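Question thread 4412

I'm putting together a teaching handout and wanted feedback from people who do this every day. The idea is simple: show students a protein as raw sequence, then show them the structure tokens that encode its fold, then repeat with a second protein so they can compare. Below is the first pair exactly as I plan to print it.
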Amino acid sequence: MPRLSDPRITKGHAASFLVRLYLQEPEFLSEFRQLRQNHAELLAKVLVTQVEFLVKCREVLSIEKYQKMVRALYQLPVTRRSIPTLPENLTRQLEQMKQMYVKLEPYFHDLEQLASRWKLKASWAGPMLYLYHIHDCLRAAGVPDAIDVPLEQLDLLYPWPPPVSPLEIKVSAWAFVFYGRKQIQVEIAKKLKDYEARLKTVGLKEKPSALENHAKWWFEHYAKGKPYRELAQQFSGTEEETIKRKVWEFSKLVGIRNR
């Protein structure tokens, strides 16, 4: 069965596919790296401060308050109303971090201008490029690209609360005596199917399978200026009108202004 996806997560995946294509374009990557170099010292300080801050928050805050803090940081600038009560030392560190972000405003502006020149006219373009910069820094420091997250900790993965409460399944030890493992697996499968159906009723949909292709078509058309007829020849087996429609739908999905 296909995986499900929240519409916000689908949009994030689509935007990520597109940004990766930009970062594989030598000319764009050169300009991006130059901007980073212009602000390298301050960017490094901000990253270190933010990582230290979140580590300390995780040590002293409950899971609920920590999630609230993470969500607040996704919506900078952070205001006192949007964050939980913090110990004095963390409050000072948060104020320090906010001041650093103010100093980085020229960098964020430059990122937005870079994206706009390359036809990537979306409100998320600058922040997404900044996140990829953070990713590069963490990878250079030895942080792995991917980590295995236990099922019971996935609620912490995104800055939004899950759409419904977690599914809890309890299996008595006597079930192995009364039913056996095969029948237990059948009963669990039924519960999973019912839970998946419930998720679909609150807005989760099957994850689109062709987003990467649509991102590629969009990039080739808008960033590289290739007409749809040429794309239909390049990607044999796909009609010109289909590519045109999917490029339009992709722009709408990720919120790009094409004019």
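The second pair follows. I'd like the answer to focus on this one:
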Amino acid sequence: MKIIFNTFKYGNARTRFALLLMATGLLAGFGMLAYSLIVANYIITMTSVVLLIADVCYIMSTDFRNLIIPVQNKQHRKKEKKLRVKNDNEDESGALDWISSEKKKKPSQVEKISEDIDKDEKNDGKDDEKTPKKKIPDVNPLTLYDQKKYKKLFIEYKVKQEHVLILIDSCMRERITECPAILWKDKTTAYILLLEAEPRMIKFNMYDYNEMHIRAAVDADPDREYRDFKEHSFLGKLFTPLLPNYTKTDSGNGRKSICKKALYGIGPDIFCTSNSVKNIIQVLSLNMVLTESKIQKGSYSDWFKRIYISRLMYRDKIFSAPEYQAQVMGILDQMAEKASDDDFSNSITQMLLGGLIPQEYAEYANFKRK
């Protein structure tokens, strides 16, 4: 009833007419039915029943969900989390036991694969050129929103109930930096409502942008980034759980360790934080693709790339340990059933040399293949 009331209150003339038509049909139908029973008129009884059935069908075919009263997701009620800076070797027990942190002497082919993986997870700093320079505004835009203004946006922009919160790290094309946003979709279009100093909407066709582009290692500085979220505000508390996960890597030669973060791009190069990905995949079905990556450009099989991407997503806490292991086993099952003989053999070799799977997983895949 609340949705219908707000639909009538905030809807346009066409919407109100539809609601009045529904109500009129019900009243007329029940009125005719009552009159027909009193006078015992069979024709009027059948007419009233047909009218009621038609009106009920019209009501059931009307989608009220597109006219939304905002409902916060359960995750919005979670307590504010601190920025997490994790170490490469801090894996959940048992999930990555086969990934060795020791640098042993290996054959040249192993060194080549390991070098490509290391370059992907450390990068060379060139990606900074594609990240807009962070400017500290005079006014923290997050403080411009309270709960009342936040809820009004849902009505003004017709946000669907099936929406999620995301945190956009950067987008050169749309000039977005460290911006909280709301994501939802209809049949063909994805909508992103940016909660900037002045809210604005961007949208894109999901069929034109059906990939999520992963930048595995972008230079980061946790002390300087996302300063606005460190101030007390309604939006700051709501979006703090979506702040990036950071990874420290040893730069070698006794130098200070380098801090990295992974970014996940949707639509026209809208790169979001790793903690936004779980929410994004609730709404959008996307193929995962590596970008600015030695692995993507190298002569690695698609099966190798898929398991490598799963490992990146596990380290970013997108997959839990059981989910990650299930992903790896699922990919090996598909590879055993669908890959050609050469593709299967080369993929298993690459995975073993790169440390993506242990020997027992390779034996399982071979057994499944036979």
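Top answer:
Good format. For the second protein you could add a caption like this: The CA atoms of residues 278 and 318 lie 6 Å apart. Strands lie at 84-87, 164-171, 176-185, 189-194, 200-205, 211-219, 245-249, 258-266, 270-273, 287-290.
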